[in-house]
Amino acid sequence: MALIALAADKGSPGVTTAAVALAAVWPRRVLVAETDPAGGDLVYRSAAAHGGPLNPNTGMLSIAATARRGLVPDQLWDHVQPLSGGLEVLVGLGISEQAAGLAGLWPTLGRAFASLADSPNAPADVIADCGRVSGDTPVAELFPHAALVLLVSRTEPEAIARVRDRAAALSNKLHGGPRGAANAGMPLIGVVLVADTNNAAKLSGQVNDMLVHAQTGARVVGTIADDPAGADQLAGRRRGRLEKSLLIRSARKVTSDLYQQFGAAWSMPTGPAGPTGHNPAGHNGPAGTGMPGHAGAGR
Questions:
Q1: In terms of DSSP H, where are the helices of 3-142?
Q2: How far apart are CA 45 and CA 36, in angstroms?
Q3: Is the N end or the C end of the chain the one with fewer CB atoms within 10 Å?
Q4: C-alpha 87: how far from its chain's center?
Q5: Half-sphere exposure of 182 (CA within 13 A, CB side)
Q6: Are 139 and 106 within 8 A, CB to CB?
Protein backbone atom coordinates (compact mmCIF):
# COMPACT_ATOMS: atom_id res chain seq x y z
CA MET A 1 0.00 0.00 0.00
CA ALA A 2 1.08 3.58 -0.40
CA LEU A 3 -0.98 6.30 1.22
CA ILE A 4 1.21 9.34 1.79
CA ALA A 5 -0.33 11.98 4.05
CA LEU A 6 0.98 15.56 4.00
CA ALA A 7 0.16 17.94 6.82
CA ALA A 8 1.39 20.99 8.71
CA ASP A 9 1.16 22.16 12.28
CA LYS A 10 0.32 25.84 11.79
CA GLY A 11 0.42 28.64 9.27
CA SER A 12 0.65 28.23 5.49
CA PRO A 13 3.86 26.37 4.70
CA GLY A 14 2.66 25.16 1.29
CA VAL A 15 1.09 21.75 1.95
CA THR A 16 -1.12 21.85 -1.14
CA THR A 17 1.70 23.04 -3.37
CA ALA A 18 3.99 20.33 -2.03
CA ALA A 19 1.32 17.63 -2.47
CA VAL A 20 0.58 18.59 -6.08
CA ALA A 21 4.26 19.05 -6.96
CA LEU A 22 5.10 15.59 -5.63
CA ALA A 23 2.10 14.08 -7.41
CA ALA A 24 3.08 15.73 -10.70
CA VAL A 25 6.37 13.80 -10.73
CA TRP A 26 5.27 10.65 -8.91
CA PRO A 27 6.63 7.55 -10.69
CA ARG A 28 3.37 5.61 -10.49
CA ARG A 29 -0.25 6.49 -11.06
CA VAL A 30 -1.32 8.74 -8.23
CA LEU A 31 -4.49 10.27 -6.86
CA VAL A 32 -4.40 13.55 -4.94
CA ALA A 33 -7.06 13.64 -2.21
CA GLU A 34 -7.88 16.99 -0.61
CA THR A 35 -8.77 15.79 2.87
CA ASP A 36 -8.36 19.02 4.83
CA PRO A 37 -11.46 19.30 7.07
CA ALA A 38 -11.22 23.09 6.76
CA GLY A 39 -11.88 22.85 3.02
CA GLY A 40 -9.89 22.49 -0.18
CA ASP A 41 -8.39 24.98 -2.61
CA LEU A 42 -8.29 23.18 -5.94
CA VAL A 43 -11.88 23.89 -6.91
CA TYR A 44 -11.17 27.62 -6.68
CA ARG A 45 -7.75 27.64 -8.32
CA SER A 46 -7.75 24.86 -10.88
CA ALA A 47 -9.30 24.11 -14.24
CA ALA A 48 -10.78 20.75 -15.09
CA ALA A 49 -9.50 18.73 -18.05
CA HIS A 50 -12.48 19.90 -20.14
CA GLY A 51 -11.38 23.50 -19.66
CA GLY A 52 -14.19 24.53 -17.34
CA PRO A 53 -14.32 24.70 -13.57
CA LEU A 54 -14.17 21.70 -11.30
CA ASN A 55 -17.43 20.45 -9.84
CA PRO A 56 -17.36 21.25 -6.10
CA ASN A 57 -19.96 18.57 -5.41
CA THR A 58 -17.88 15.72 -6.85
CA GLY A 59 -15.09 14.64 -4.54
CA MET A 60 -14.92 14.40 -0.77
CA LEU A 61 -18.44 15.76 -0.49
CA SER A 62 -19.99 13.16 -2.78
CA ILE A 63 -17.95 10.31 -1.35
CA ALA A 64 -19.40 10.87 2.12
CA ALA A 65 -22.74 9.27 1.20
CA THR A 66 -21.06 6.37 -0.56
CA ALA A 67 -18.69 5.63 2.33
CA ARG A 68 -21.56 5.28 4.80
CA ARG A 69 -22.65 2.18 2.90
CA GLY A 70 -19.13 0.80 2.80
CA LEU A 71 -16.35 1.74 0.43
CA VAL A 72 -14.48 -0.47 -2.03
CA PRO A 73 -11.22 1.22 -3.12
CA ASP A 74 -12.19 1.26 -6.81
CA GLN A 75 -15.28 3.31 -5.91
CA LEU A 76 -12.95 6.24 -5.26
CA TRP A 77 -12.60 6.70 -9.02
CA ASP A 78 -16.32 7.50 -9.27
CA HIS A 79 -15.61 10.74 -7.39
CA VAL A 80 -12.36 11.76 -9.12
CA GLN A 81 -11.95 14.66 -11.53
CA PRO A 82 -8.98 15.09 -13.89
CA LEU A 83 -7.30 18.47 -13.94
CA SER A 84 -6.10 20.34 -17.00
CA GLY A 85 -2.58 19.00 -16.55
CA GLY A 86 -3.82 15.40 -16.31
CA LEU A 87 -3.59 14.94 -12.56
CA GLU A 88 -6.49 13.07 -10.94
CA VAL A 89 -7.95 14.61 -7.80
CA LEU A 90 -10.59 14.13 -5.16
CA VAL A 91 -11.77 17.71 -4.70
CA GLY A 92 -11.96 18.79 -1.09
CA LEU A 93 -14.81 20.15 0.95
CA GLY A 94 -15.98 23.65 0.26
CA ILE A 95 -16.21 24.88 3.86
CA SER A 96 -15.34 23.44 7.25
CA GLU A 97 -19.00 22.95 8.20
CA GLN A 98 -19.25 20.21 5.57
CA ALA A 99 -16.73 18.11 7.51
CA ALA A 100 -19.59 17.00 9.77
CA GLY A 101 -20.74 14.79 6.90
CA LEU A 102 -17.49 12.82 7.17
CA ALA A 103 -17.76 12.21 10.92
CA GLY A 104 -16.84 8.60 11.67
CA LEU A 105 -15.79 7.93 8.08
CA TRP A 106 -12.11 8.87 8.23
CA PRO A 107 -10.89 5.32 9.06
CA THR A 108 -13.01 3.97 6.19
CA LEU A 109 -11.44 6.49 3.84
CA GLY A 110 -7.98 5.68 5.18
CA ARG A 111 -8.41 1.99 4.46
CA ALA A 112 -9.72 2.71 0.95
CA PHE A 113 -6.85 5.08 0.18
CA ALA A 114 -4.27 2.63 1.46
CA SER A 115 -5.77 -0.28 -0.46
CA LEU A 116 -6.09 1.50 -3.80
CA ALA A 117 -2.54 0.50 -4.73
CA ASP A 118 -3.66 -3.14 -4.64
CA SER A 119 -6.68 -2.64 -6.88
CA PRO A 120 -6.81 -5.26 -9.67
CA ASN A 121 -8.50 -2.76 -11.99
CA ALA A 122 -7.07 0.73 -11.45
CA PRO A 123 -4.21 0.71 -8.93
CA ALA A 124 -2.77 4.00 -7.71
CA ASP A 125 -0.99 5.55 -4.79
CA VAL A 126 -2.78 8.30 -2.87
CA ILE A 127 -1.23 11.58 -1.75
CA ALA A 128 -3.55 13.14 0.83
CA ASP A 129 -3.41 16.87 1.46
CA CYS A 130 -4.49 16.96 5.11
CA GLY A 131 -3.93 20.67 5.70
CA ARG A 132 -3.18 21.80 9.23
CA VAL A 133 -3.43 19.22 11.98
CA SER A 134 -3.84 19.51 15.73
CA GLY A 135 -4.45 17.04 18.51
CA ASP A 136 -8.18 16.76 17.87
CA THR A 137 -8.34 17.05 14.08
CA PRO A 138 -10.43 14.21 12.61
CA VAL A 139 -8.20 13.83 9.54
CA ALA A 140 -5.51 12.38 11.82
CA GLU A 141 -7.60 9.19 11.73
CA LEU A 142 -6.14 8.66 8.25
CA PHE A 143 -2.61 8.48 9.59
CA PRO A 144 -2.64 4.91 10.99
CA HIS A 145 -3.46 3.70 7.47
CA ALA A 146 -0.62 5.65 5.81
CA ALA A 147 2.74 4.36 4.76
CA LEU A 148 4.25 7.77 5.37
CA VAL A 149 3.15 10.93 7.17
CA LEU A 150 5.04 13.99 5.94
CA LEU A 151 4.99 17.18 7.98
CA VAL A 152 5.64 20.22 5.80
CA SER A 153 7.41 23.13 7.46
CA ARG A 154 9.15 26.34 6.63
CA THR A 155 12.46 27.11 8.27
CA GLU A 156 11.74 30.04 10.58
CA PRO A 157 12.72 29.13 14.17
CA GLU A 158 9.12 29.07 15.40
CA ALA A 159 8.07 26.84 12.50
CA ILE A 160 10.87 24.38 13.19
CA ALA A 161 10.00 24.29 16.87
CA ARG A 162 6.38 23.55 16.04
CA VAL A 163 7.20 20.76 13.59
CA ARG A 164 9.49 19.20 16.22
CA ASP A 165 6.71 19.22 18.78
CA ARG A 166 4.09 18.03 16.30
CA ALA A 167 6.35 15.17 15.17
CA ALA A 168 6.87 14.11 18.79
CA ALA A 169 3.13 14.24 19.47
CA LEU A 170 2.35 12.16 16.36
CA SER A 171 5.03 9.65 17.24
CA ASN A 172 3.54 9.25 20.69
CA LYS A 173 0.01 8.89 19.32
CA LEU A 174 0.84 6.51 16.46
CA HIS A 175 3.69 4.51 17.94
CA GLY A 176 3.53 4.99 21.67
CA GLY A 177 6.53 7.29 21.73
CA PRO A 178 9.97 7.25 20.12
CA ARG A 179 10.90 3.82 21.48
CA GLY A 180 7.80 2.38 19.91
CA ALA A 181 8.48 4.26 16.69
CA ALA A 182 11.73 2.41 16.21
CA ASN A 183 9.86 -0.88 15.94
CA ALA A 184 6.43 0.12 14.74
CA GLY A 185 7.07 0.34 11.00
CA MET A 186 4.31 2.29 9.31
CA PRO A 187 3.42 5.01 9.27
CA LEU A 188 6.87 6.48 9.12
CA ILE A 189 6.99 10.16 10.08
CA GLY A 190 9.04 12.47 7.90
CA VAL A 191 9.59 16.19 7.64
CA VAL A 192 9.74 18.09 4.34
CA LEU A 193 11.25 21.54 4.61
CA VAL A 194 10.25 24.41 2.32
CA ALA A 195 13.55 26.21 2.01
CA ASP A 196 15.77 28.44 -0.08
CA THR A 197 17.83 26.13 -2.28
CA ASN A 198 21.06 27.92 -1.30
CA ASN A 199 20.63 26.89 2.34
CA ALA A 200 18.59 23.72 1.95
CA ALA A 201 21.30 21.16 2.64
CA LYS A 202 22.64 22.95 5.73
CA LEU A 203 19.18 23.58 7.17
CA SER A 204 18.11 20.02 6.47
CA GLY A 205 21.04 18.66 8.45
CA GLN A 206 20.47 21.01 11.35
CA VAL A 207 16.75 20.27 11.60
CA ASN A 208 17.35 16.54 11.30
CA ASP A 209 19.88 16.67 14.15
CA MET A 210 17.32 18.52 16.26
CA LEU A 211 14.62 15.92 15.52
CA VAL A 212 16.99 13.11 16.45
CA HIS A 213 18.19 14.83 19.61
CA ALA A 214 14.60 15.47 20.70
CA GLN A 215 13.75 11.79 20.14
CA THR A 216 10.77 12.70 17.98
CA GLY A 217 10.85 9.51 15.92
CA ALA A 218 10.89 11.69 12.76
CA ARG A 219 13.55 12.49 10.19
CA VAL A 220 13.95 15.09 7.47
CA VAL A 221 13.26 13.30 4.19
CA GLY A 222 13.90 16.20 1.83
CA THR A 223 13.42 19.84 0.93
CA ILE A 224 11.02 21.55 -1.46
CA ALA A 225 12.30 24.76 -3.00
CA ASP A 226 10.76 27.99 -1.76
CA ASP A 227 9.94 29.01 -5.31
CA PRO A 228 7.02 31.46 -5.65
CA ALA A 229 7.40 31.65 -9.43
CA GLY A 230 7.29 27.87 -9.74
CA ALA A 231 4.27 27.74 -7.43
CA ASP A 232 2.50 30.27 -9.66
CA GLN A 233 3.30 28.13 -12.71
CA LEU A 234 1.99 25.07 -10.93
CA ALA A 235 -1.21 26.97 -10.17
CA GLY A 236 -1.59 28.08 -13.78
CA ARG A 237 -1.17 31.74 -12.82
CA ARG A 238 2.11 32.18 -14.66
CA ARG A 239 3.57 30.87 -17.89
CA GLY A 240 6.94 29.18 -18.09
CA ARG A 241 8.69 25.84 -18.32
CA LEU A 242 7.39 24.34 -15.14
CA GLU A 243 9.49 21.22 -15.47
CA LYS A 244 12.60 23.42 -15.22
CA SER A 245 11.43 25.28 -12.12
CA LEU A 246 13.20 24.89 -8.80
CA LEU A 247 9.91 23.68 -7.32
CA ILE A 248 9.54 20.73 -9.68
CA ARG A 249 13.24 19.90 -9.72
CA SER A 250 13.27 19.74 -5.91
CA ALA A 251 10.04 17.69 -5.92
CA ARG A 252 11.69 15.18 -8.26
CA LYS A 253 14.61 14.86 -5.84
CA VAL A 254 12.32 14.30 -2.85
CA THR A 255 10.27 11.73 -4.78
CA SER A 256 13.38 9.91 -5.98
CA ASP A 257 14.80 9.77 -2.46
CA LEU A 258 11.50 8.54 -1.02
CA TYR A 259 11.31 5.73 -3.53
CA GLN A 260 14.93 4.79 -3.09
CA GLN A 261 14.44 4.54 0.67
CA PHE A 262 10.89 3.22 0.97
CA GLY A 263 9.81 2.04 -2.48
CA ALA A 264 10.66 -1.60 -1.87
CA ALA A 265 8.01 -1.66 0.84
CA TRP A 266 5.42 -0.30 -1.58
CA SER A 267 4.66 -3.23 -3.82
CA MET A 268 4.44 -2.27 -7.46
CA PRO A 269 0.83 -2.49 -8.61
CA THR A 270 -0.12 -4.70 -11.51
CA GLY A 271 -3.08 -4.66 -13.80
CA PRO A 272 -4.39 -2.33 -16.46
CA ALA A 273 -4.14 1.42 -16.27
CA GLY A 274 -7.17 3.19 -14.95
CA PRO A 275 -10.07 4.72 -16.79
CA THR A 276 -8.41 8.00 -17.66
CA GLY A 277 -5.14 6.53 -18.90
CA HIS A 278 -1.71 6.96 -17.37
CA ASN A 279 1.84 7.66 -18.39
CA PRO A 280 3.99 5.42 -16.16
CA ALA A 281 7.04 7.62 -16.59
CA GLY A 282 5.85 9.93 -13.85
CA HIS A 283 4.17 12.44 -16.17
CA ASN A 284 0.98 12.76 -14.18
CA GLY A 285 0.76 16.51 -14.32
CA PRO A 286 2.32 19.70 -15.56
CA ALA A 287 5.90 18.61 -15.06
CA GLY A 288 5.41 15.99 -17.72
CA THR A 289 2.92 17.67 -20.02
CA GLY A 290 4.14 21.23 -19.92
CA MET A 291 0.53 22.32 -19.36
CA PRO A 292 -0.69 24.72 -16.69
CA GLY A 293 -0.94 23.23 -13.26
CA HIS A 294 -3.36 22.67 -10.52
CA ALA A 295 -2.82 23.84 -6.99
CA GLY A 296 -2.72 27.02 -5.01
CA ALA A 297 0.58 28.14 -3.64
CA GLY A 298 -0.72 29.57 -0.42
CA ARG A 299 -1.29 26.42 1.62
A1: 15-24, 42-45, 60-67, 106-115
A2: 16
A3: N
A4: 13
A5: 4
A6: yes
